Known about the structure:
- Among the domains are: 20-116, Immunoglobulins (Immunoglobulin-like, Sandwich); 122-210, Immunoglobulins (Immunoglobulin-like), CATH 2.60.40; 228-311, Immunoglobulins (Immunoglobulin-like, Sandwich); 316-406, Sandwich (Immunoglobulin-like), CATH 2.60.40.10; 426-513, Immunoglobulin-like; 1068-1149, Golgi alpha-mannosidase II (Immunoglobulin-like, Sandwich), CATH 2.60.40.1180.
- The protein has twelve helices and 71 strands.
- Strand 57 (836-839), helix 6 (873-887) and strand 58 (917-918) form a beta-alpha-beta unit.
- By secondary structure, the chain is mostly beta strands.
- This is Alpha-amylase.
- Residues 226-315, 421-517 form the Fibronectin type-III domain.
Amino acid sequence: MLWGIAGLAPAKQAAAAEAGTATIYYYTPYKNWSTVNIHHNGSGGWTAVPGVPMEAACANWTSKTVNIAAGGTFQTVFNNGSGSWDNNGGNNYSVGLGIHQVKNGQVLANSGNPCANPDPVNTATVFYKPNANWTNVNIHYAPVGAAWTTSPGIAMEPACVGWKKKTLSLGTANGLAATFNNGSSWDNNNGQNYTLGIGISKVENGVVSSGDPCGGGVLDTIAPSVPAGLTQGSVTSASVTFSWTASVDNAGGSGIAGYDIYRNGALIKSDVAVTTYTDTGLMGSTSYNYTVLAKDAAGNKSAQSSALTVLTSAGNQAQIYYYAKTRGWSTVNIHYAINGSGWTTPPGVQMNENACTDWTKKTIELGSATSLKAAFNNGSAWDNNGGADYNLGSGIITVKDGVVTPGSANPCTPLPTDEVAPSVPINVTAVANHLTVTLSWDASTDNAGGRGVAGYEITRTGGTQGSKVMTTTTNSLYDTNLEAQTSYAYTVKAYDKATPSNLSAASAAVTATTGDAPIPNPGGTPLGTDMREDSIYFVMTARFYDGDSSNNRGGQLHVKSGNAANNDPMYRGDFKGLMDKLDYIKALGFSAIWITPVVLNRSDYDFHGYHGYDFYRVDPRLESPGATYQDLINAAHNKGIKIIQDVVYNHSSRWGAKGLFTPKVFGIQDNDWSWYYDDPIPGLEYDGLYPASVSGKAYNGDIWSTVEPEDNTCRNWGVFMNYNPEGRKVYNCQWPNPTSGMFPSQYYHQCWIGNWEGEDSRSCWLHEDLADFNTESKPVQDYLIDAYNKFIDMGVDGFRIDTAVHIPRVIWNRRFLPAAMEHSEATFGEKGKNFFMFGEVGSFVNDKWNRGSVNHSAQFFTWKERQTYSSDDAVAALEQYNYENNLGTGNQPTSTNAFLNGNNYHSPDRSQFSGMNVIDMRMHMNFGDANNAFWNGKDSDDSYNDATYNVVYVDSHDFGPNKSKNAYAGGTDAWAENMSLMWTFRGIPTLYMGSEIEFQAGKEIDCGPNCPLASTRRAYFGDKIEGTVVASSFGKADSANGTVAQTLNYPLVKHVQRLNQIRRKIPALQKGQYSTDGISGQMAYKRRYTDAAKGIDSFALITVSGSATFTGIPNGTYKDAITGGVITVSNGTLTATVSGKGNLRVYVLDLPGNPAPGKIGEDGTYLK
């Protein structure tokens, strides 16, 4: 998809011209511009956007003289400096030496100075009487013989009551066509447009006539009277209602349009139509000052009224006592956030109310809230409850040594003596699991008038460690790290909160015997084997399986995306769900899972993971207690399954990257946008979860401001620009933009992509949701490298790199690839050397090279640099682009790493490998037919450093073959044939979740938020795998029940299970080089892999969907992995007979020390 703004980049490169000058005259009525800039490449390179100002020449004309470098012609475009461009319909204007006119979209070459004989200037004054519901009017018009204004046209001005007016310059035109609108609704004379002449015209109720309906009167410039009589109404702890006496407008004025409300001097509500207002979200026991001003229809504003001061009621209250003795603090501050509000400014407020020895106190007004979060400090050291903060309610609360006691007595009031112990714990149970014993019992009770039960004392006997006493504040305990096959006895006593505490008698003893020690958990360390030994199952985590509904979230656009009933939120699947279904994936036979990005995302529709906001935090919408990302990695590794993490180096979310740069945008809570912008909550950090509602949007109160921030760099802050398709006003700096100055160039690129095969595709923005990192900048490089090193530390086995083509190869080779590999090797040694990275290089073409551009072709990224460039990364990026672009496709390196030498495997030369493998985009594009994909893939393989590492798939979460927007729908037979090819040809076979049952075949893959997810290929998959499945080995389910059992019986599932069984047992199919020499057949090839150090020599003959004859092969005994058939070759020739789409023959040579496996797996619909 192409995103960009016409005119910001040249549509094509200009040819050279002779040195000299060209004078350009531009006709301003064509675009109805008052100022004009000329943006050109007359000096050899394009001027900086928006170009240079043109000077006024005469009525309707501006001019500029341009110095031209050597050559024939140059190119130019024009703009008004406010985002409106004239670039000749995307073709740019071409001019040469001389004096030229650019008028009404045409170059009048060498036509001379139009001001020598200036055109007459005609004008038209148009009056329009709009519908009473229209508060503003635009006139969209075209002078006779000229172009229309840019929709919605230009704003008309108030004339007199009920009328709008605009005087237009028509040049030589003697009339115009016009329509009128309010930004969303239109009056176009029932599709005929209005025909108006020069002079004065008026349009009323569809009728055109002449004359001034205002009688030439004076415009309304007098403000209404100041609102008076502000009167307090109902008041609560969180809201205030007040009213005032209506203002009056001047005689003959335009009439009262509404009122603006101010709280404590800040505007809180615009355009209130009535004379009463309720302000909400306030604090209890707090004084607020309110003023009101009136506005008339002509836009005149009165002064603000006299202030009304209102004190909110007390509301709820928390009396908090904090015990300071243990920490030795002489002063204590409480830093808190009332539920629904932001945090105080650190260190908070001092707890300085009268208390007693060792205790400090603070009373906090909660208003209508019932709870708050708190942390305590002495100005330097903190007590934040171990990082979890304290959750406190209303009433009297004590916090002592980490224990919160709600509803407690005042600790400064002496209590009566308590010398009675709690009741003896009963119903004690002890259950052993491996080396852990879980104890539980019924809670004890304290005596009437006692201090209450404080906790329990557990005594353990047994084992070589002897007796041990433990305590807990709950009625359960996990006793861990015990000895194997050992009997332990436990008794439990209860103690109370008295000083000194009273201890009950011991419970009846219980015993438990531990089992064997569990297998050590390898989580946190990569499995560390060659990724070619695996097949990959690609999972969009948020749409796979819902293991924990508490982290489900619908997002800002949940209704449009099909979650109106709150039953299909965009964030639905999670790590717990993936952990629950690891055995399903293992039963399919996959030993690696590629998961969509895990970092905290931020946008209105971000479940896919590609809008990264906090690159140092896992998105909480994917995690659960006991199912963190680390837990998932560990659980997968324990089953022998690798985790490949999708990562993004190219861009952040539209709201920037936390810890690097996050912009503040213009926002306003007016009638158009109050639904979108949340009230700011001081101290609240975005986490994707708040507020906790499956239908609610994530909090965005921190991203916007109506008042321009002091450090703002975005130009024209809050200036009205136009209307969006929904008819809402759109303001400058409201949405992220690379050209507005909002994003600093140190961290982000400053342009839109104009040419997807040009240099700008590596250094400009793809889309406003994808803020393009300046990856040539060291702070950005350091930020990303450090972030992703932390995930390497967690033990992930590889990275799938999103949008890799949009970062210059030299930056990958200099910075990101070596940083990842060096960190992996330094951290994990030999295992770290097999860290696997593969990039998405979006060359969506059917040919070997991407439209002739080597810099945008997948295979290009598998090679190291072959030239020395500047040490400045930004300069080096351009040098590398130009150097390789000039060499072209015919002078790129080639490799034999994927090919056999006759029948023999040879050691591959990986010395020039960049470190990045790639998705095989050419096979993907050609997978409309397996045979087509095979021959196209084979044709490209000499241009990769080593095509045996290519990641091969039919379709994905983005596109089907041939860049189809719909999921592959070739049918079950075609899918079986595609799989048979992918699992036996070079490369790593990869399957997108659900393809094993043709899930949502033919459906649109992604419609954004504009249709229900359930109607797309990104529909929730979990319904198809409900139930349980157990798999102890790859490619086979030991047991299954529920819906997943039916899914596992699907013909393609059986097919992929057997293909995985076969591939795992034949090294030649995993890592072998291949050849088609001496072979007759369609999709037929021979493969061999040899590793003398490990004693491996595997040679196989493969044919897909049809018979083939192999000549010139080694003599010996060959055994077919599909049928078990045996053929002895004595003349170097073998004929493999096979029929049926998707069927296979895999004849493996029986070699000393490497016996052929014979038949693998059971016959199915396709393999037989």
